[in-house]
Amino acid sequence: MKVRVALLALVGLASLSCRPPEGESTGDEARSGAVEIRPGALHDDKVAARGDPVDFKRFQVGPPTPCTIAVYWDNPSIGGRLVLRDMFGGAIAEVTHAKGAGKDTIGPVVLKDGTFFLEIEAKSGASVYTVELFLGDPETMGSEAIPWPE
């Protein structure tokens, strides 16, 4: 009887010390599994420092064009960063999230023909986020900045 009680107490303590992960890996934690995003569409996902700390998004650019990326955070207290990368993984632009801000923006950055990646990293906490991609200059082109590629 004493052995049974001791085992139950040990199992109970072990289960209390194991916290469930905040996120779950979804296959987009490397450039090879990057999810394609398109201008003019909103793309939702989640990152969590424990479980799913990095997401990669991929997009294509034709002729040289200004690119602006906005990321809207559901949990603005997340500790995170955004990195715009070229097809070889080189960093083009980087933004560290300011805790409390609901939105982070990269750009406008002029990109040339090729494939580009957005790395979204949670360093602490977790948040659902929305990515919005603009190709062209939204300031001067209005809605015409959005449709490429069709």
**Strand segment tally:** 9
Which fold does the CATH topology refer to?
Jelly Rolls
Radius of gyration: 20 Å
The average pLDDT score comes to 80
Order of SSEs: HEEEEEEEEEH
Secondary structure elements and pairings:
Layout: H1 2-17, E1 35-36, E2 42-48, E3 54-61, E4 65-73, E5 79-85, E6 91-96, E7 103-111, E8 114-124, E9 126-135, H2 138-141
Parallel strand pairs: 1-3
Antiparallel strand pairs: 2-9, 3-8, 4-7, 4-9, 5-6, 5-8
Summarize the structure.
By secondary structure, the protein is mainly beta. The chain has helices spanning about 1-15, 140; strands at about 35, 40-50, 55-60, 65-75, 80-85, 90-95, 105-110, 115-125, 125-135.
Could you name the key traits of this structure?
single chain; 150 residues; mainly beta; Jelly Rolls; 5-stranded mixed beta sheet; 4-stranded antiparallel beta sheet; 9 strands; 13% helix; elongated; disordered C terminus
